[in-house]
Amino acid sequence: MGIWTLVRAVVGFPMRLIRRRGRGAEPPVAADPRRWLVVGLGNPGKRFVGTRHNAGFEVLDRLAAAEGIAMGGGGTRLGAKLGDGTIAGIPVVLAKPQLFMNLSGESVDAIMQHYQILKSQILVVYDDLDTAVTSLKLKGKGGHGGHNGIRNIIDEVTGGDKSFARLKVGIGRPPPDVQIYDHVLTKFSEEERVALEETTYQEACDAVRSVLALGMDKAMTAVNNKK
User: Fold this and answer.
1) Record's family (predicted)?
2) Relative to the CA of 159, which of 117, 177, 190, 207 has its CA 20 to 30 Å away?
3) Residue 144 annotated as catalytic
């Protein structure tokens, strides 16, 4: 707990400055009631690449590449790597917050304000301990389940409202002798990595497309009933 308190003190204040300066120098984008924000959660930095906690980043990278959406050109805006485009004919903003996981909500809040995106039109892609590896679960609401990124989004963005779409990418729970903190920061086994890259991440991209094209109810039926 101590380390995350320190991180918030060091990173949180600059993030608030970024949001204020961003709104002053860059006017909000004209509202489009069809626009969605798709957020992939993870931790920035090379040391976290390929870890379980960065499954959301992995999905966003593949989705952006498949749809021809450039993700920020190596730079950041509003505390995130951003990409604007269309998927299934729907205007979207893809976002990979570049703060530590438990500060993700601050970036998401800034992005939503800048693009004037409704809370009902955000989809968060993230790793989930209670979903088996290589499995996906699409939900329209729910608690944070101990996930600090989701917890921060609930606190910073929705004011405690848990009714926003989320796509859970399964990472499984650790063995009894392994702490959850250590588990989420380890890399997938080679067998798991191959299965994820060959099947799961592609299915996750398809799930995002289904949400945009069909709406949550039909997308949940398709994703959650897949064998």
Assistant:
1) Belongs to the PTH family.
2) 207
3) no
